[in-house]
Amino acid sequence: MLDEKSRQSALDALRVLDTPPDERVDRITRLAQQIFGVPMVSVNLLDRDRQWRKSEIGLGVREVPRTDAFCDATIAQTGTFVIEDAAQDAKWASNPFVLGDPHLRFYAGHPLQAPGGEHIGTLCMLDTKPGSLDESQRDLLKDLALWVQTELAQQQELDHAAVVQRALAPRDLPQPAGFTVTAGSAPAGAVSGDFHDVRLLGDQLRITLADVMGKGVGAGIIASAVRASMRTAPERSLLRTVREIDSILEHDVGDLHMFVTLFCADLDTRTGQVSYVDGGHSLTFILRTDGTWDHLNSTGLPLAMGLNESHRLGTVQLNPGDALMSCSDGLLDLLDLEDPWGQVEQTLAEFGIEGAVEEALRRAVAAKAADDVTVVVVRRDS
């Protein structure tokens, strides 16, 4: 016996109703049609009084009343539900979908479960001719249904991870007197393996940009952990902070080969002196007022590589009019490889420091960049 209240709550919690088509689910629908050779396949979610289709082939409409839906009977089953010839089945012969369009005869569906086990929908296939499924075909339909429900649950996990990550991103960038700070990130997917952080600790502006090698939720979790570690015990020196995080990462995830490139710096807002540690990132530069570029070289290898190489502290002076710029390697994919510096200088001239960051992120979104793009710019105005 279905607990309709619990079932509906589980469906609502997935937050998938009335969402756009999803290629990951559509791919399973197409595969089912090809394997079983039927004209109609659908991924259905049973809402309060309707059957809504997340994906469909051959049906042409996204929802129908739940009252007459074959799938309403399927969610009450523990396994695959098959109607070989609805026109000859006393229970279904008078169904409006049998008597009228699309004149169904054959139906086979398997329940879709929410992470808690509640039956929230079905993967079903239909035909206008009678049909049947043998045991191996039933098992295959079950496997495809499990694939669908995994994709639906994974999307919920991605959404949750994205919310957590957005909550950890800096809301308001500090703007110390005499400086302009601009930063932003455009994730390639729902969750980014990049992160940036800018904090003002007394007279010190701490700037961090890191890139976890990898994509998806795993990289996002590690990025969030590194960011949290950077914020813990702010009284630690920059060098000690990086070395301790490196040691922790190597111990916890070193065997996963998900190393982290990182640039972090303390900028003295009174003098413009920058002390920095670069863990294999090597994508930080200073644009001088005369148009020249200074590259801040790496002072150590990426974190979690386990090669026992100690990071070192570098120093550089940020003079009035100079700008410190750091980016993740995703930005490189958007640049003209024949003249990257010229393209950056042209963008800066056209949009200014603040507008250039927004333009870089806009291009990343427009180009559907394959990698996360993060940019941090700090200019000393006076």
UniProtKB/TrEMBL annotation:
Protein name: Serine phosphatase
Signal peptide: none
Organism of provenance: Nesterenkonia sandarakina
Domain PPM-type phosphatase per the UniProt entry, residue ranges: 176-380
Pfam family, one: SpoIIE
InterPro entries in the record: GAF, GAF-like_dom_sf, PPM-type-like_dom_sf, PPM-type_phosphatase-like_dom
